[in-house]
From TrEMBL:
GO terms for biological process: vacuolar acidification. The chain crosses the membrane at residues 6-25, 37-55. GO terms for molecular function: proton-transporting ATPase activity, rotational mechanism. GO terms for cellular component: endomembrane system; vacuolar proton-transporting V-type ATPase, V0 domain. The lineage of its organism: Eukaryota, Fungi, Dikarya, Basidiomycota, Agaricomycotina. It comes from Panaeolus cyanescens. Pfam families: ATP_synt_H (PF05493). This is V-type proton ATPase subunit. It is a multi-pass membrane protein. It is found in: Endomembrane system.
Length: 71
């Protein structure tokens, strides 16, 4: 059985990257836009990875084996 450790690990890494992007974006007229873009990018990348990982752990459709093809 697979572990949920990678899910939590990548969540912590993503939260750290989001925090860093909020703290280290230089001041300027587009600061809020850049922060928002970076944070949404990190969140979407994490969600894409997590959904793909979970879909591989628990597939909705199981492989079907027909008795005639087995030897």
């Amino acid at each position: 059985m697979a572990s949920v450790f990678p899910i939590w690990l990548y969540l912590v890494i993503t939260a750290g990257l989001m925090t860093a992007s909020a703290l280290f974006v230089p001041k300027g007229p587009n600061q809020v836009t850049i922060r928002t873009a970076l944070m949404l990018t990190f969140a979407c990348c994490y969600l894409l990875w997590m959904i793909t990982y979970m879909a591989q752990l628990h597939p909705m459709i199981a492989p079907m084996h027909s008795p005639s093809t087995e030897h």
